[in-house]
What does this fold into?
Amino acid sequence: MTDKTPHYDLLIHGGTVIDGTKAPRFDADVGIVDGRIAAIGKLAGHTADQTLDATGRIVAPGFIDSHTHDDQAVLSHAQMPFKVSQGVTTVITGNCGVSAAPLRDDMELPMPLNLIDAPAQGRYTTFAAYLDALRKTPSSVNVAALVGHSTLRGVAMSDLDRPANEAEIKVMRALVEEAMQAGAIGMSTGTFYATATNATTEEIIGVGQPLSARGAVYVTHMRDESDQIMEALEESFAIGRALDVPVVISHHKAMHTPNFGKTKVTLPFIEETMKHQCVSLDCYPYTAGSTMIRTDRGMLDNRVLIASSVPHPECAGRDLADIATEWGVSKDEAARRLQPGSAIYFVMDEDDVQRVLTFDESMIGSDGIPLGDKPHPRLWGTFPRVLGHYSRDVGLFPLETAVWKMTGLTARNFGLHGRGTLKTGQHADIVIFDAATIRDTASYETPARPAEGIDSVIVNGQITWEHGAHSGARNGQVITRSDKVAR
Ligand code: ZN
Ligand code: CU
It folds into this structure.
């Protein structure tokens, strides 16, 4: 813009900016041109094609969901209402070792590879094909994708109940290389799950070699989040050191009653390790987790809510204990009859959840699973719950910190260049919300409900959500490694 009186595509005026860096809020207008932030300051008198009045509202960077399973949803539910409605403008896909690519049409998807609702036909056999599909039919949110190690095992190995041999490691390594060249931002593992419990540390290091040259992230749903959590952290850090790449610990938690309070030990250990190597972590603001229906590892010891069931869809939203009583069988047997499906497990302690949320370096990630009518409420409620319930009502941290944990910090940890903060030149991913009223309304009983207090959500300069309704805009971009700053 060389003109003396700039003209904007979109002008947000009268708001209070929280810029995603943890800096104190300040009053300013924001001008947008060509999908980028062109100016922040007093812009009164400047003209624009479209204006938004943000008086009395917070203007913040669009939220980045650091942990999602939206790989297929960004194509099949391209408007992504469950994310856009809470202010999310970017999702990191391919977590927990599970990604939508590469897959083969003729391969079965054992739990948890079926966390992603991949079609039986027309799957993406290469990572490049997946990202191309997303470019051709954009979603309403930006996507930065990880490639999943369990998915690679499914492609490369005939039998997942053992470590990979040299030849299989070589095949998987080549697939990681292909994903990196196509633009994947890193690799995830999920050694907690049967599809990868038999993978050794050496296997993961062997498969992850292509990450090293690029400093791409290694993201992990660790082998253990309960009795052996310290060993699991050590293994994750060792893999990060061997590959010389940043490590992201997914959905950090201490699971099951005997381990309640363990975050008093894990967090100082993580903090100490951060002094020597690049480590980060994410978490969701709930005491219940959610994954596929499983009967092992004490998963059925506490309250279990069925989220979805293929053979018994009528059981979605019901307590496993009630179903078992009605059927006159054990909880174990009832769970087996309900498989395949997904469930919500009440396995965490509120004090641990708050301790992890409050830990300065913790990012916010929903870990939502976009399957069925009764998903875990985190799918719709994570971000407003942190801003409303935990920051404003419980007072765990200032709003500036809450916003940073879902924007600037996340962009830094995943190397998402040009996003996560409000500055001139940045991509115009913006959320406008009311700090006094923002709250999650999604509950375990009624989980598919949009947040209150979100005025507008802007993705790459386009208004995508306004006053409780989707605009239909699908202006999301694929964020690839080539967009990254060199570390
Ligand atoms: Zn996970
Ligand atoms: Cu996950």
Q: What stands out?
A: Confidence is low (pLDDT under 50) at residues 483-487.
